[in-house]
Write a structure and sequence with these properties.
The chain is an alpha/beta fold. It contains 10 helices and 10 strands. It is globular, with a radius of gyration of 19 Å.
Length: 273
């Protein structure tokens, strides 16, 4: 079993609804993204949340990263109730969890240089002087395999794999305990996926990180996850260790996803939380 017994993240009865307005009719209606989400994520564990498009995975990711407030429920991070804290304390707690988006080309400011992109969280949180922020940003670029010579480049001058490394460096700036990766591998080719997975595993060990991967690719999930939660129509229908879920799925929908994937690569199923 990897990870300690103490949970880093606990989610209780979490739900999220959006109010939408019908074009022309000016009528409002409610869209339910997810409901009754219950999760416990132990320190050092890599949890994958899988499901088809529209299952509510990305909305859940934004709430877990404290970028959006859920409509109901509770989020405990490191034992603290994130949603009940005063605004300033919640702002500081946000350092502990960072989100890496699917498309770094869209999530990184194209007007900023690479060093400015990585240093931005330090500037927002007012950590260090400008010189210290830039020095730290250069160190983080090196940590993720980017040359300091690229510090003045804009994000669109990098390849897709390099941009994702830049996004990861930015997410690490505040020294979080938890990274939520929202389809962060899906836009990459297989070679870049393998390279980023290797980088994430090295960072997990070196920096004692915990990961939540949002994904639709079960074959890829079989290569890195400790635990897997299956999400359908806004609900988690099954949550188990990777080996148990792949080899002995309980829910009909899980079996349907696995059948569509084909036989799992059993060599990867040995790693378990």
């Amino acid at each position: 079993m990897t990870g300690s017994a103490s949970p880093l993240l606990e989610v209780r009865n979490l739900g999220k609804e959006y109010v939408r307005t019908e074009p022309f009719a000016r009528k409002q209606f409610i869209v339910r993204a997810f409901e009754n989400i219950e999760l416990t994520v132990r320190r050092g564990v890599t949890l994958a949340i899988v499901g088809e498009s529209g299952a509510g995975k990305s909305s859940l990711a934004r709430c877990l990263a404290l970028l959006e407030s859920p409509t109901r429920g509770e989020i405990f991070l490191g034992g603290k109730s994130a949603l009940e804290l005063p605004k300033q304390e919640r702002f500081l707690l946000c350092r502990q969890v960072q989100l890496v988006f699917q498309d770094p080309a869209a999530s990184l400011n194209p007007q900023f240089s690479a060093v400015e992109i990585v240093a931005e969280p330090l500037r927002i949180q007012r950590i260090g002087t400008r010189a210290q922020q830039q020095e730290r940003a250069i160190q983080l670029m090196q940590l993720v395999g980017l040359s300091p010579d690229a510090a003045s480049k804009r994000s669109l001058e990098f390849s897709g794999g390099q941009r994702q490394r830049l996004a990861i460096a930015r997410a690490l700036a505040l020294e979080p305990d938890l990274l939520v990766l929202d389809e962060a591998l899906s836009s990459l080719d297989r070679a870049n996926q393998e390279n980023i997975l290797q980088l994430l595993e090295e960072l997990r060990v070196r920096r004692s990180l915990t990961y939540i991967h949002i994904s639709h690719d079960l074959a890829l999930v079989s290569r890195f996850a400790d635990e897997v939660a299956v999400m359908r129509s806004g609900r988690i229908v099954e949550h188990n260790t990777k080996a148990e879920l792949f080899l002995h799925p309980e829910h009909t929908y899980t079996r349907h996803l696995l059948a569509a994937m084909g036989p799992p690569e059993t060599a990867w199923l040995g790693r378990s939380a």
